[in-house]
Amino acid sequence: MKILSLELQNYRNYRELQLEFSPGINLLYGDNAQGKTNALEAICLCATSKSHRGTKDRELIRFGEEEAHIKVMVEKRGIPCRVDMHLKKNRAKGIAVNGVPLRRTAELFGILHVVFFAPEDLSIIKDSPAERRRFLDMELCQLDRIYAHNLISYNKVITQRNKLLKDLDDHPDLRDTLDIWDEQLASYGIPLIQSRKNFIGELDQLVKEIHLSLSGGREEAELSYAPNVEAEELRRVLARERVRDLKVRTSLTGPHRDDMIFTVNGVDVRHFGSQGQQRTAALSLKLAEIEIVKRVIKDTPILLLDDVLSELDGSRQKQLLHRISHIQTVITCTGLDDFVQHCFQIDKVFHVEDGRVIGGIHEQ
Ligand code: ATP
Ligand code: MG
Q1: What is the pLDDT of residues 138-160, one digit of tens each?
Q2: Residues with C-beta less than 6 Å from any ligand 1 atom
Q3: In whole angstroms, what separates CA 207 from the centre of its chain?
């Protein structure tokens, strides 16, 4: 698939913006804090309904304004498609596809598929399990609407169940309703665990090959799922652990406490990997993600590379750019030196300055 254009109104530091992309490699360059990441974030929002930075909708609206608009034109198998997003300060956002308003956010998934590379990807490897779950959920939601639906419902159940656990002191009569929440937790949670298991299994196969090649044949990587509880055990463990949940007044069992483990040469890279190994692991993971997406959607996703090239050494830069050729890409950077130096093919260059974009020059 290809993204043809992006239009913004009162989004972050943009009052008005209109960009037309090349189907090849697009480069947005400019100094710090000019709006490069903001433009990529807006594209991400039209794909996933959320900011990749986890920002709340109201904070995406330009300071002092009440509303923001994003419009993205996409082409899928030759057919154009328009996504309109209307962000409002005090209400839920409105989304329309080809002018038809969506009833549920999950209906957006699959229209525009992006794979986002950012320097913060390192946190998938280094930080808490929540980061790894966020990575899994962001991708699985785009690939599978049923997963997205189950996840939204599951998260609501966890919120309600935790609230109930806290309220039981004042309302002990509500204790029996825990059975209903537990049944819902299991019915939405079991398919989440199964999907994550399959997805991580597929990722593992790809990560092995990619990581070996990125490390020049020196490192064997392995990715494994560390579920809080196996799918077939969820109901039983939930019942068994209820006393503990009542004591700590929070839900301790279920996929909201899952993790994923990345090992390099048999050692957990999160705790024992060097900076370089962790960077390679994060890159392997994202490159594997592209391959899975290509397989599942039988098309290419759009790649958004936010300031990541400067983080990689020359040989990894080359490998990355080699693997993403033939995929439409939007790259941001602060200077053009790296590209000129390495003779990378760039199809269109935009200069970003204080919420304005100058250029859109076609390179030869
Ligand atoms: P860097 O190279 O440092 O990553 P960047 O070009 O990617 O910079 P962005 O993150 O896209 O920068 O933009 C940051 C700018 O956007 C900041 O100056 C910030 O104040 C501004 N900004 C963020 N949110 C809003 C908002 N809601 N309204 C107006 N301006 C905003
Ligand atoms: Mg940035």
Answers
A1: 999 989 999 999 999 999 999 99
A2: 12-13, 30, 32-38, 59, 61-63, 307, 334
A3: 18
